[in-house]
Design brief:
Layout: E1 2-8, H1 13-16, H2 20-25, E2 37-40, H3 43-54, H4 58-61, E3 65-71, E4 77-79, H5 96-107, E5 114-118, E6 126-130, E7 141-142, E8 146-148
Parallel strand pairs: 4-5
Antiparallel strand pairs: 1-3, 2-6, 3-7, 3-8, 5-6
């Protein structure tokens, strides 16, 4: 499966896929102190995910970012059962229950390399959590990054 990540061009590709941001700040699916790389099934979803975190910053919308494609073997991906999503998983603030789901997945030595979870932004589409410390990390293929720009009309 091909997945996408959009990141700040001040980062090296290695930093962009290290999980340091999630380790330092946590996220919807992990608490601080856990390395996880967030990616999206579609480039457009990756763009939306980045966009909501720009919080209307007009200057940031005019910045050139980098897009990175990651190829993950399907056998190394597991789907989180949608019927097991906790109530409020899609709340505006990060949820301790969803963080616990991600933390437990990261701690499980038998868990697959990636966990497919629904996007809060577009619930019919999915993001992938990728464990950068997993033994199968070397089985993914990471493409060279290329420029990504938002359409200028977004900042008008």
């Amino acid at each position: 499966m091909q997945v996408w990540r959009i990141y700040d061009r001040n980062l090296t590709p290695e930093q962009a896929i290290s999980g340091w941001g999630s380790f330092n700040f946590g996220g919807r699916w992990n608490s601080e102190g856990f390395y996880v790389v967030y990616a999206s099934e579609h480039l457009s979803l990756a763009a939306f995910e980045k966009l909501v975190h720009l919080d209307g910053d007009q200057e940031a919308l005019q910045t050139t970012y980098l897009q990175l494609s990651i190829e993950i073997p399907d056998a190394l991906i597991s789907d989180f059962p949608l019927d097991q999503l906790p109530e409020g998983w899609d709340s505006l603030v990060d949820n301790a229950e969803t963080q616990s789901i991600g933390n437990n997945w990261l701690k499980d030595e038998d868990a697959p390399l990636a966990l497919r979870v629904p996007s809060k932004i577009i619930k019919q589409e999915f993001n992938l959590l990728i464990n950068p410390n997993h033994d199968d990390w070397d089985k993914i293929d990471i493409a060279e990054p290329t420029d990504f720009n938002y359409d200028p009309s977004l900042s008008e």
